[in-house]
Design brief:
Distance between the termini of chain A: 57 Å
Radius of gyration of chain A: 30 Å
Largest sheet of chain A: 8 strands, mixed
Number of helices of chain A: 16
Oligomer: homodimer
Structural class of chain A: alpha+beta
Chain lengths: 587, 587
């Protein structure tokens, strides 16, 4: 046996026992002829004391032991002398007096330290040596947290009568939004499997098959241009239920998350229970975003009516063009410097605004770029409606309503970060519902599905499909948390006629429809039940729970921001023989 | 709400309640103006009674209802009249007297019946309409069983301190046996990701990272020529542990399976506990197979010594060439017809034998092709050693020992099937250990690894690496059950020097080693712990537990025997634009 205990589990109650441990040298100190090793395994760290009275061959063997060597140690558990306890270590009441030491594997000097997060190296260096970086306590804990999250989900859904069903990774190329990753077939040259962007079609077919309540921790693949926090492959809790209305699905998922958060991340607080439910229109108007961060106020205030007769040209021209005027109030920001305000104006412009009028509310009255254009009664009404007080900064946007909302929504988040307004222990979940069914693509001048083409429209809006697509609403819903979209779902189409109409609206030819979705349309003719589901993303959820800045920190072996695995060097060239077997050439 | 209950849960205790159910029409009978629907969902079937006193619009609506229509039914639970109960249905004590019926979706006539397994259509037809085929009670139950198996594994391993970690599906092309499926990179044209044949390297790197006890229900991919019961993608319980010796791993897995079988498949019996453990040499000698079926006897008997002086030329020449003579005894088979014996001889030849001498033990003495060559004392010794009695058939093989074992091992299974010797309720698990480390490939005249190149040799055999590779044994082990290999694993190499030597023995160039395995070799230098693991296959295990003849019956959406998904039609052609983006042309 390599060990009788793990390093992190030894307590004062073990005092007097002889134990065998195995692990890595986390630190080494030498002090007055005595060597102290902190021995580490996944469970924690324990102090090993190597006294000079040990046999010479042992002392000689350990003389060279450095960071990250792998040792097996047999020793005697002893309470530390009074005053020498370390309250910062779970094992801090005891030490192990070494009797035998076996070097299981030496270690070269690591390319970076893993016993501390100070001086983190460049991310590509961390990823190249991912197997070392994962030794960091923080990353190890992230892996354990991720395991717990997924375990909780599985246990909860199992209890609710769901069954987990694996769906194929090698499936059909069916462009449904993003680009597919393709897998060339050797047996059928020129033909390809595709890696699924999600198991959407398959889970719907499982509902047609009567599986009733399905889930899967599903790997999904999207060949998108990588930017920000995307990975070529990601993981979602994919679930689908039969014989449900929208709120049946929301209640199930809300119940799961509400029980899960305290169980897996007790340091996190839920914003409210039950979760708030907003219409898409409402969140845009109030928060300027379809994924609002509810952990702080600063809601958007519509002041179009108050400023309807403003003498400020910027406002006038916006109103004349049929636009709106709205503002947000940044607390205690009246003293912002000219430089900061200029920078902020650039932020506003990045969201499409032409400028960023503002008012600083001071004890001496309103100041700022637009102050002189405001009449006294406008100022009074403005302060009353927006709640702005002395010391606050009022920031305006006036333009088409969509641009106004987007701009102020963006600035609201800017202030959140600058003023540290969001409680980091809070998980502010909410539902967003009643999305528009179609989105008009200005570029292609065509209607597209706002969600995906399998989402059910509101039945009452069906007659408006042809006459007024902009006024058709959908049975889609999003789960949002802290400014992120954490899940998306919908009640699905289960009738062939509606699905067919949907594909036709999207401009697909009959041929295309048959080739790509023929099996779905046919399935709906053989007794498809009403059904719906959703798919919370696992990576982002764990990232939020672990207080990490990006999803790479919670994925064991992530690709870097260019989509490369820099540890194993993938993608990479392959042998000519392999290409020949696939009958592939490159241009 | 679509339903208050599921169909299968209604019992006599619900009598008097009004319930709402939703499901599929499993059967319809009309009898004296009353219609009876069996309504089905995943939970089971319940009888709906539609009396002629219902409003005309309801009666009209249901007049056309046929098999597999989807209905919602509100009705009154009523105990069936005495004598009308159906003891074969869990809901057989009650019926639902319909009050309202809503047609949720009609159904065209299905291409085949799903309410019965009689007249199963051609498999490709079943796979094309897999979403309908899964409605069969048998297939639905297989999916539920699979869910339970995997759930049990996860719960058990979680309790043992394992954490589940997801490893990438898009990884590096590293030919390690079978052919890789490749994924062309759009961002790096000419380069490829590969789908993992197993997470072997990644799980070893997780051990280097200190994850200690890892598992994953892992999808694996092999682009092999499809034959028999193979799928391009399959699923295994992938697990790995640090600081373990061989028996630590075996004990863990044996504990898991021993608790699991009665929990998930109570109709199955375990052959023994603890499981028998055989050396590779021993199973070949006794059962003629490295995956012995222990559910019946008919072990191979070595009769070389008895027949050392045989006058039978066939035996003589085998012995002169240094071979062996062995036999098996087929019970009650002395009366086999000439035709059957000829057929059996062909079976023997398919395993490499040149012929198949046999003796039928009858009340009148030994009969058969070789009978006349046997001396009386040989016959006596033979019967004593083999235990053959009157009515039995003794079948011989004489050749090189490997061919003898293989032939009799194959014939043993032939008799198992013919004579129905194996108890179908039995799960006869066993361990096979002490495999040879190298295998000599006669074709390439080179040594190959018998298991895979990361398997540790027995340390005591290291000195024989160069001088006598055939006598090096490995720390590999197999789990076998009922004649199948159900898992394979090993203690791994964790030292760079041994791994390097292994790659060199396999004839890899320094360049190849660096390009393909550089990251592994480097990892071993930074403090790799001793580790090992194994990977039980999920598909075959569930197949055995479900008494199915092949793994396609326990996979939700399998490929057919040509590796095609005939439901969605994959693989298939893709749009020229996609090939252009990948810069791919076909020869």
């Amino acid at each position: 046996m390599y060990r009788t205990h793990t390093c992190g589990e030894i307590r004062a109650s073990h005092a007097g026992q002889t134990v065998t441990l195995a692990g890595w040298v986390n630190r080494r100190r030498d002090h007055g002829g005595v060597a102290f090793f902190d021995l580490r395994d996944r469970s924690g760290v324990v102090q090993i004391t190597i006294n000079p009275d040990l046999p010479k061959e042992i002392l000689d063997a350990v003389a060279n032991v450095r960071f990250e060597w792998v040792l097996q140690i047999e020793g005697f558990v002893q309470k530390r002398p009074a005053g020498n306890e370390n309250p910062n270590m779970a094992t801090g009441e005891i030490e192990i007096i070494a009797k035998h030491i076996t070097i299981l594997n030496p270690a070269k000097t690591l390319p970076f330290m893993v016993s501390s997060d100070a001086d983190l190296p460049d991310e590509n260096m961390r990823l190249k040596y991912r197997y070392l970086d994962l030794r960091r306590e923080r990353l190890t804990n992230n892996m354990v947290l991720r395991h717990k999250v997924v375990k909780f989900m599985r246990d909860y859904l199992d209890k609710q009568g769901f069954i987990e069903i694996e769906t194929p990774i090698m499936f059909k190329a069916t462009p449904e939004g993003a680009r597919d990753y393709l897998v060339p077939s050797r047996l059928f040259p020129g033909q390809f499997y595709a890696l699924p962007q999600s198991p959407q079609q398959l889970k719907q077919l499982l509902m047609v098959s009567g599986m009733d309540k399905y889930f899967q921790i599903a790997r999904c693949f999207r060949d998108e241009d990588l930017r920000g926090d995307r990975q070529p492959e990601f993981t979602q809790l994919d679930l689908e239920m039969s014989f449900v209305h929208r709120d049946d699905v929301l209640d199930l998922v809300e119940g799961l998350f509400t029980e899960m958060i305290p169980a897996v991340a007790p340091h996190k607080k839920l914003y409210s229970s039950p979760w708030p439910k907003f219409s898409y229109k409402e969140v845009l108007e109030r928060f300027g975003s379809d994924k609002p961060d509810l952990r702080f106020g600063m809601e958007l205030v519509d002041v179009t009516d108050i400023l309807a007769k403003s003498e400020f040209k910027v406002f006038q021209s916006a109103l004349e063009a049929g636009g709106a005027i709205k503002c947000i109030v940044a607390p205690k920001s009246a003293e912002m410097s000219r430089k900061e305000l200029d920078a902020l104006t650039e932020v506003a412009k990045s969201f499409g605004a032409k400028g960023m009028p503002y008012l600083a509310v001071t004890a001496e009255g309103a100041k700022g770029s637009a102050a002189k254009f405001f009449k006294e009664e406008e100022l009074t009404a403005l302060k009353e409606k927006s709640g702005a007080g002395v010391g606050d900064l009022i920031v305006f946007a006036s333009d088409a309503r969509a641009i106004v909302n987007k701009t102020l929504g963006g600035l609201r988040l800017w202030f959140r970060d600058k003023l540290d307004l969001a409680d980091k222990t809070m998980m502010a979940f909410a539902w967003v519902v009643d999305f528009p069914f179609f989105a008009f693509n200005e570029e292609t001048q065509a209607w597209e599905s706002e969600h995906h083409p399998f989402t059910m429209p509101k039945m009452a809006d069906l007659p408006k499909f042809d006459s007024n697509p902009a006024e058709v609403y959908s049975e889609a819903y999003d789960m949002v948390c802290n400014g992120y979209e954490t899940a998306s779902g919908s009640i699905r189409i289960h009738r062939r006629d509606i699905q067919m109409k949907m594909f036709q609206m999207l401009g697909l030819s009959e041929e295309d429809i048959q080739a790509k979705f023929g099996h779905m349309l046919e399935a709906f003719e053989y007794g498809a039940p009403p059904h719906g589901g959703m798919a919370p993303g696992i990576d982002r959820l764990v990232m939020l729970l672990a207080d990490e800045p990006n999803i790479r920190e919670v994925i064991a072996f992530p690709k870097n921001q260019n989509g490369r695995d820099v540890m194993a060097d993938a993608p990479s060239g392959v042998e000519p023989k392999q290409l020949k077997e696939l009958k592939i050439k490159f241009e």
